[in-house]
TrEMBL record:
It comes from the Bacteria. Gene3D superfamilies: Metal-dependent hydrolases, Urease, subunit C, domain 1. Keywords: Hydrolase, Metal-binding, Zinc. InterPro entries: Amidohydro-rel (IPR006680), Aminohydrolase_SsnA (IPR017700), Metal-dep_hydrolase_composite (IPR011059), Metal_Hydrolase (IPR032466), MQNX/HUTI_composite_N (IPR054418), MTA/SAH_deaminase (IPR050287). The keyword Hydrolase applies. Residues 22-47 form the Aminodeoxyfutalosine deaminase/Imidazolonepropionase-like composite domain. Residues 56-411 form the Amidohydrolase-related domain. This is Chlorohydrolase.
Length: 445
């Protein structure tokens, strides 16, 4: 047993949200009890003690939209890359990168991303993978890294017609194989979805095939109307809007997650709501690509289940929190906007969404829930309680405030030292691999 204590405890359990001197008792992969430190010390005298050193103890973060494959792009310079618009960014940077990924670079991309997740207190991710250089088996390589790192992962491969029929078929098969593999795994640490790039790179034939081979109890993870080009293409090629197109292929529903949804109208929002489809917002990515600001506050207030991701831009969920908070204030010219909606997306909706794929309750510290717990180095300069702790997180903490990360009861980082991974070797291998990859990309241009 483990006992995490000697800190301020934020539980996200409405019945007992806050303990000034709290503790979490962990038995195996599950939380056994939450309460005052003195009470839990008395109840579990034999438990190994993890000292929060006066910091903050809270549920680990969940990232609903990640791109492990983007890792090797950090600092990369592609010869001749001078994008004019979002499609140039995709083709010149991201598709160029993923066409050159092999299994080794995919695996290392996953390992370094998982290391960053652990350091930022993220223990559950929903990843959207592409490696058109080596498709078959790629999700299994990421799963291998996920298991070594100890991060709960829902994986999918980005199906697209952009590289021809054979690669598209291979991508569909990779999803089906991985989903079936994950369904047979009872660890509750791995899951699979059917990944699709975006409407404008998917033919009707491909959508039909995907719908016909989708295994039961799963859905799609797809980019929707991230750029306005995606909407124009759908209107021109198919005479309908994107959400309607997905609806016509029976692809919406409570297991499906649409990333971005920047250019959707009221009718499409009604369809998302009616089908209980999930939406994930990635503020930094949308701003960085100059794609526009999604109607996230409207989606949230209509009751569409909306969560928060990073789109690979960062692995620190507090960055998404901070930027979403100011993006919607700025966009709506309303300094009152987003105060409550964004933390609700991050601390509540992300867990509800993740629990559509993982069985054990996530995102809350209470008996029976998954033992995904983090400790942050934070000493408040003003009083902190359950009514204002989100303000303290927003303005006082970052991902790198996290000192200890526990996932499914396993200590992945303790006092800022990774417990199960050789960080120096992985990073050194990653740098070498990235240099080779960059050389490969630029020698062909
Ligand atoms: Zn994305």
């Amino acid at each position: 047993m483990l006992l995490v204590g000697n800190g301020t405890l934020i539980t996200r359990n409405a019945d007992a949200p806050f303990y000034a001197d709290g503790a979490v008792a962990i038995d195996g992969r599950t939380i056994a009890a939450v309460g005052a430190l003195d009470d839990l010390r008395a109840a579990y005298p034999q438990a190994e003690f993890i000292d929060a050193k006066g910091g903050v103890i809270m549920p680990a973060f969940i990232n609903m939209h990640e791109h492990i494959y983007s890792a090797m792009a950090r600092g990369m310079s592609v010869k001749g890359y001078n994008p004019h618009g979002f499609l140039d960014i995709l083709d010149g940077m991201w598709w160029t990168l993923d066409r050159n990924l092999d299994h080794e670079s995919t695996w290392l991309s996953a390992m370094v991303t998982y290391i960053d997740c652990i350091k930022n207190g993220v223990t559950t991710i929903f990843d959207h993978h592409a490696s058109f250089g080596k498709i078959r088996g790629s999700l299994f390589r990421i799963e291998d890294a996920a298991k070594q790192a100890g991060i709960r992962s829902c994986l999918c491969y980005e199906i697209s017609d952009r590289d021809g029929q054979d690669k598209c078929d291979a991508a569909i098969q990779e999803n089906v194989d991985f989903i079936n593999h994950a369904r047979a795994d009872d660890s509750d640490m791995i899951a699979g979805m059917m990944g699709m790039h975006a409407s404008f790179t998917l033919s009707d034939r491909t959508l039909e095939t995907c719908a016909s081979v989708l295994p039961p109890d799963t859905g799609y993870h797809i980019h929707v109307a991230e750029g306005i080009e995606d909407l124009y293409d759908c209107l021109e090629q198919h005479g309908k809007r994107i959400i309607d197109r997905l609806m016509d292929f029976d692809m919406l529903g409570r297991q499906t997650m649409c990333a971005h949804c920047i250019y959707i109208n009221d009718h499409e929002m009604e369809v998302l709501k009616h089908t209980d489809t999930m939406v994930v917002h990635n503020p930094e990515s949308n701003m960085g690509n100059a794609c526009g600001c999604p109607p996230t506050m409207e989606l949230y207030h209509k009751g569409i289940l909306t969560g928060l991701g990073t789109d690979g831009y960062t692995h620190d969920m507090t960055e998404s929190y901070k930027v979403a908070n100011i993006l919607h204030k700025h966009h709506l010219h309303n300094a009152q906007a987003a105060w409550s909606e964004v933390p609700d997306m991050l601390f509540h909706n992300n867990a509800v969404m993740a629990n559509r794929y993982f069985k054990q309750e996530l995102g809350v510290l209470r008996a029976g829930a998954a033992a995904d717990v983090i400790v942050l180095d934070y000493n408040p300069i003003t009083p902190m309680d359950e009514t204002n702790c989100n303000g303290h997180i927003l303005f006082g903490m970052t991902g790198r405030s996290v000192t200890t990360t526990i996932a499914a009861g396993k200590v992945l980082m303790r006092d800022r030292v990774l417990t199960g991974l050789d960080e120096e070797k992985i990073l050194s291998d990653s740098r070498q691999c990235a240099q080779k990859l960059w050389n490969r990309i630029n020698s062909g241009r």
